[in-house]
Please model this.
Amino acid sequence: MRCATPDRIVGVETRSVVVTGMSCEHCATAVRGEIGKLPGVREVEVDVAAGTVRISGEPLPGDAALREAVEEAGYELAGQRP
Model:
């Protein structure tokens, strides 16, 4: 059972990663679509200007699956954002 708090739902993980090569909303849509297909992913927020992607879900996909999804969209996973 999940307990709701004002700013998040307990049990849902969040991770931010850096994705290189994105330059427009089309890029964001492609990345959002591929990552969104992964099991456990609930929400994908893309900031093209910062080159970051914030992923929320339970459980979050592993590094290999995430890298594959980003590459399928045509971009490169450059690492995690602290």
Q: What stands out?
A: Residues 13-81 form a domain with the Alpha-Beta Plaits fold (CATH 3.30.70.100).
